[in-house]
Design brief:
The chain is mainly alpha-helical and 312 residues long. The chain has one domain: UbiA prenyltransferase (Tetracycline Repressor, domain 2). Helix content is 78%, strand content 0%. The protein contains 15 helices and no strands. Helix 3 packs across helix 5 and helix 5 packs parallel to helix 8. The protein is globular. The N and C termini lie far apart (59 Å).
Length: 312
């Protein structure tokens, strides 16, 4: 028995490996975006039954889609691990273990079973909420596979991943209001796509820059160089602040200009300082810091909405 297998052999730690496969510590932060999107559009809490089913479906869907990424990228992740991946301490996506199948801590069969069970549960829940949501879930899974397949083809794969990460919020709006006008989910998609590219995708690829260069991967950091990638990331984060302002102004919650500026300013405080630090110093540590801090964007947005609903 290897030292790694022995280290992760207990039932609780085995569960942690499956959670690591789905990046659950990070995923829980992402799961707050659909909740925030639903509240932002409705302006109030949905009926209890819809809320509970929605929360379960969100958890199942994100758990499945994140695991799909590791299944589709298994060979690449295994090569990176065997090639000696650098230090991952302090990196949110490395909580518990990073890519446990690639490390040999989970088998591919175990990963497939885990993903399929959560995927079926999410699909059923999404269909009950709104059949369109089920189609969005299937589209998200398919696009996640496409994203992985484009690793050595085009750096524009980042746009595919941005759409995948944005579909959860779009589906949440349609789940609570099937008649929502198209422009509000579209505005949300643009805003969350900018967040994904500038605050998640670029800093994550920056963190893995050496491995990506060694494998010939086509990422924004490799294709554009770190100078230009840092510029793209910072302007995307500025776009998130502007998009947040537009969403708050357009939402039926009655923020007004002052409330919208307050919310957008809070998001700016969260995203822009670490984005500027990466732009200026261009270090791996700054990339990890931006990724970690930007991961809290959905949580901060949800917290602002809840505070407004409760106290204003």
């Amino acid at each position: 028995m290897s030292s790694l297998t022995a280290q992760f052999g207990g039932p609780i730690t085995r569960l942690k490996l499956f959670l690591a496969l789905s990046r659950t510590p990070h995923g829980l932060l992402d799961m707050t975006m659909p909740v925030a999107a639903a509240l932002l559009w409705l302006g109030h809490f949905p009926p209890l039954g819809v809320a509970l089913l929605g929360l379960f479906t969100v958890f199942a869907g994100y758990t499945a889609v994140y695991a799909v990424n590791d299944l589709a990228d298994l060979k690449v992740d295994r090569d990176n691990y065997q090639g000696g991946r650098g230090d991952t301490s302090g990196y949110l996506d490395a909580v518990y273990a990073r890519h446990p199948m690639a490390m040999g801590l989970l088998t591919r069969r175990e990963g497939l079973i885990w993903t399929a069970c959560w995927g079926v549960a999410a699909l059923v829940g999404a269909y009950v909420l709104n059949p369109v949501c089920a189609w969005l879930l299937l589209a998200g899974c398919a696009l996640e596979v496409v994203y992985c397949m484009l690793l050595k083809v085009s750096h524009l794969r980042s746009l595919v991943n941005a759409i995948v990460k944005s579909l959860g919020g779009v589906a949440a709006i349609l789940a609570v209001d099937p008649g929502a006008p198209w422009w509000f989910p579209a505005l949300l998609l643009l805003t969350t796509s900018a967040w994904e590219v500038g605050g998640q995708n670029i800093p994550a690829d920056w963190f893995d820059l050496e491995e990506d260069q060694r494998q010939g991967a086509r990422t924004l950091c490799v294709a554009l160089g770190v100078d230009h990638a840092g510029t793209v990331a910072y302007y995307c984060l500025c776009g998130v602040v502007v998009g947040t302002l537009a969403l708050l102004l357009a939402a039926p919650m009655g923020f007004g200009l002052v409330g919208a500026l307050l919310g957008a300013g809070l998001i700016g405080w969260l995203l822009l300082p670490p984005g500027l630090a990466l732009f200026r110093r261009k270090g791996r540590g700054e990339a990890a810091a931006l990724f970690n801090r930007a991961s809290y964007f959905p949580v901060v947005l949800l917290g602002f909405l809840l505070a407004w609903m409760l106290f204003v």
